[in-house]
Amino acid sequence: MKIAILPGDGIGPEITQQAERILMALAHDGLKVELAHGLIGGSAVDKHNDPFPEATRRLAEEADAILLGAVGGPQYDQLPREKRPEQGLLAIRKALNFFANLRPAQLYPELANASTLKPEVVANLDILIVRELTGDIYFGTPRGIEVRDGQRVGFNTMVYTESEIRRIAHVAFQAARKRSSKLCSVDKMNVLECTQLWRNVVEEVAKEYPDVALSHMLVDNAAMQLIRNPKQFDVIVTGNMFGDILSDEASMLTGSIGMLPSASLNEFNKGLYEPIHGSAPDIAGKNLANPLATLLSVSMMLRYTFNQDATALRIENAVKKVLASGYRTADIFEQGMIKVGTAEMGDAVLANL
Ligand code: NAD
After folding, report:
1. What digits encode the pLDDT tens for the residues 92-102?
2. Has 220 been annotated as catalytic?
3. What is the DSSP letter of 77?
């Protein structure tokens, strides 16, 4: 298993370091991992004047999976757009065709108070949003702002080919199979033809997965149901724009940004794995960052790229035990718990692995 580690900026190096410790411990137990390191984002601009240098592109292409910390920081905010750290992230997604974005929102019962929703609505929440990442209205043409009949008009094009819908549907059905075999496809077929096609193609693909229970929901209702009764969902699949909005909504149900991992996959299940949070420059280098989102990203990597479900479960169970034992980084700390730093949280997970 060739894994490229791209720590990035801010808290990136601290959190990926904890992930590496876990991977080395698993290697000690017989997991065949090979790690290589590269620069991305601001750290790559500092050294190579490029947020996604050629050497990193080659490293990423040769790897089976990539673990990324986070990119960005205020010192890069004045750079021209093409030199900004975030361009490194967009470039790696594009270069490797990572079209499927998987974002679980899981709330451990011990952290139920972190959510703004009532604990009974969200305790034990465990849903997965599969978002199409390289198509839809974000990329469709024609697009622009122009003057028509003496006034400015802004326009974009919502477009999906059936092959784009089919490939994301397959990812979602397969992900559902790895969970409780329940999939909800979200569209707006009552108004948008593009999403009528979405629904038709998802139904065609469903014939190949008779063991998965498929349902459909309109996006406005889905946004409401996610707040009203989020635990009715298991896996949700949707397009780029609806997924952008719903995945942020779902992640905030849990209230703890330092806990949530993500995966972006291509058609060969090669993946880019990263926590959903940013580089947190306000706490960088202070041993304050919560490394659990990054450790859970490693668990997603083992599950989705390497099909090592049992090893993934070892990491997830270790995280559960650590939380049950009361260990908390500052972002999830509550009175009566044991406050620990980034490295100590890593120690605790290792000890429970
Ligand atoms: P952020 O996610 O970095 O931070 C938001 C808040 O959450 C901060 O108070 C931070 O301290 C806290 N936080 C984030 N991760 C944490 C963790 N693991 N443990 C404890 N606390 C944590 O978002 P921001 O402040 O809007 O952005 C900071 C920089 O990160 C910007 O340059 C932005 O462009 C970049 N960014 C990068 C990514 C990415 O790499 N995928 C995503 C979002 C933002």
Report:
1. 988 999 999 99
2. yes
3. T
243, 116: one domain: yes
Return the structure tokens found at 150. Answer: 């003496």
Q: What is the pLDDT of residues 258-278, one digit of tens each?
A: 999 999 999 898 999 999 999
Catalytic residue among 64, 126, 244, 347: 244
How far does CA 202 lie from the centroid of its chain? 22
Binning the chain into helix, strand and coil, the percentages to the nearest 5 are 50, 20, 30
Judgement on whether residues 134 and 81 belong to the same structural domain of the protein: no
Q: List the catalytic residue out of 188, 209, 327, 331.
A: 188
Q: Which atom of ligand 1 is nearest to the CA of 280?
A: 3
Cα angle 200-202-204, degrees, rounded to a multiple of 5: 70
User: Percent of the chain, pLDDT > 70?
Assistant: 100
The verdict on 277 and 298 lying in the same domain is: yes
The pTM (predicted TM-score) of the whole model is 0.90
Which of 277, 296, 344, 349 gets mutated to test ligand 1 (max ligand atoms within 8 A of its CB)? 277
**Best CA proximity match to 23, nearest among 264, 294, 239:** 294
Cis-peptide, bond into residue 142, ω within 30° of zero: yes
Residues 225 and 321 in one domain: no
> Under a CB-based contact definition with an 8 Å cutoff, are residues 87 and 51 in contact?
yes
CA of 71 to the centre of ligand 1 (A): 9
CA-nearest residue for atom 11, ligand 1, is 280
Helix (H) or strand (E) holding 342: helix 342-352
Q: Give the model confidence (pLDDT) of 143-196 as tens digits.
A: 999 999 999 999 999 999 999 999 999 999 999 998 899 999 999 999 999 999
Residue 138: how many other CB atoms lie within 10 Å: 15
pLDDT at 80 over 80: yes
Query: What is the number of structural domains in the chain?
Result: 2
Which element (helix H / strand E) includes 148? strand 144-148
